[in-house]
Specification:
Number of domains of chain A: 1
Structural class of chain A: mainly beta
CATH architecture of chain A: Beta Barrel
Strand content of chain A: 35-45%
Distance between the termini of chain A: 22 Å
CATH superfamily of chain A: Nucleic acid-binding proteins
Largest sheet of chain A: 6 strands, antiparallel
Number of helices of chain A: 2
Oligomer: homodimer
Largest interface: A-B, 48 and 48 residues
Shape of chain A: globular
Helix content of chain A: under 10%
């Protein structure tokens, strides 16, 4: 599966700030098919993060749960709302998305690497 | 928390091949304090991946479970065994490691991003 993919030093991967975040609020963005706005608590700060999975998951499946997020990505405006990070999910070759919830005992803000 | 960290394009993150892997075998590497050798099934291939968490987790806590791994890292020899990938875990500031098991219904080999 990795054939043809370039190989990297692990230090190159570690430059990304992955952390556990707790989804405090989740709200589909009106007039979009897939966008959902999440308010995510990382312990020391809260962020607005937009994910494109609202065609497959609704607010209730995200709110109150913890997931892994990438934090140090350039902010991106989606449908007028600025997203400051990305939700990590699984996705199969047919485009089916899988949520990967983090066990509740892992505190929000915990570094993931 | 991200203060002072550089911000990256998401495409830069997507160059890493993260996938769900099923741990078929787990065995502490003798004469090391922390190394554990995992045989991990990714559906289309199997890999040997070494993780440095054996001071906190034993074979039984890993074997038979699914986790997220980074696949396209340069192979690394650790205590004479070549590791071809990295187990993704959480870690707090005191060095306590948290396993992040992937729900069993997500097939081995599923892309994570």
């Amino acid at each position: 599966m990795v054939m043809g993919m370039e190989l990297y030093d692990v230090e190159d991967f570690w430059k990304f700030d992955l952390r556990v975040g707790f989804v405090k609020e989740a709200e589909k963005i009106k007039r979009t098919r897939k966008l959902i706005k999440l308010i995510v608590d990382f312990g020391k700060e809260e962020r607005t993060i937009i994910s494109g999975i609202a065609d497959q998951y609704n607010e209730e499946e995200l709110k109150g749960k913890k997931f892994i997020f990438v934090l140090n990505l350039k902010p991106k405006k989606l449908s007028g709302v600025e997203s400051r990070g990305m939700l990590i999910v699984g996705e199969n070759e047919e485009g089916k998305v899988y949520l990967i919830p983090v066990p509740d005992e892992i505190p929000a803000g915990t570094k993931v690497w």
